[in-house]
Amino acid sequence: MRPANEALIVIDVQNDFCPGGALAVTGGDEIVPGINALLDEFSVRVFTQDWHPAGHSSFASQHAGKSPFDTTEMPYGTQVLWPDHCVQGTQGAAFHEGLNLEPADLILRKGFRPQIDSYSAFFENDHETPTGLEGYLRTRGVDTLTMVGLATDFCVNFSAVDAARLGFHVTVRQDLCRAIDMDGSLKAAQAGMAEVGVRLAGSDAT
Questions:
Q1: Which residue, 134, 136, 117, is CA-closest to 170?
Q2: Cα–Cα distance list, 8 to 20, 128, 174 (Å)
Q3: Is 155 an active-site residue?
Q4: What is the pLDDT of residue 205?
Q5: 29, 155, 162, 177: which one is catalytic?
Q6: CB-based contacts of 202, cutoff 8 Å, min separation 6
Q7: For the residues 8-22, what does the mean pLDDT come to?
Q8: For 158, which of 119, 167, 175, 205 could close a Cys bridge (C-beta 3.0–4.6 Å)?
Q9: What is the side-by-side strand order in the sheet with 6-11?
Q10: Which of the following is catalytic: 29, 110, 153, 162?
């Protein structure tokens, strides 16, 4: 068992991000057994869940003339437009059926505000509106995080960078993540995480 100041953050291991889902990450389901095996090592375990209302502003379907993976400018900056995914209450938003949720201390839902997306487990995409996760972890006495989940170059990356900037010691288990890797986004994410002091462990499996 790890010390009580360490937490495992399991990010967005949901059906829509796994093969067959609306925004499938190649091999997204392959990480489930490894995550399950890791859960018993930690006394604090947090799962995040992308939880969009129907018609969310980050969906390409809400922007005339735009296709999935195009970008648009939002009040908070450039936003990638996604296929409709992880809509609240749908099977796509549900966690992968093989993921062991029993040990979860907290399930944090994000991306539920219609007008702003939320990659990070700590902040909305304006980098200002908090999700409340930092306060929860501080209250539990946690200062060291291990992150796993989907996708390496988006929600894991944003979560890890925010955590490091907030002063947490962060390790990303790359062998228990998978990436979208859109136009070199994985290499850029790895460089950005390393730059702020995130430890990249395991292989750089995509």
A1: 134
A2: 26, 23, 14
A3: yes
A4: 47
A5: 155
A6: 173, 174, 175, 176
A7: 98
A8: 119
A9: 106-110, 44-50, 6-11, 144-150, 169-178, 199-201
A10: 110
Full 3-state SS string of 81-145: CECCCCECCCHHHCECCCCCCCCCCEEEEECCCCCCCCCCCCECCCCCCECCHHHHHHHCCCCEE
Instruction: Specify the pLDDT at position 129.
Output: 95
d(CA 21, CA 14): 9
List the catalytic residue out of 12, 16, 50, 153.
Answer: 12
Which two tokens mark 101? 């949720």
| 110 assigned to active site | yes
Residue 46 tokens read as: 């947090």
Token pair 């925010």 is found at 162
Q: What is the pLDDT of residue 206?
A: 43
pTM equals 0.96
12 in catalytic set: yes
Compute how many other C-beta atoms are within 10 angstroms of the C-beta atom of residue 22. 18
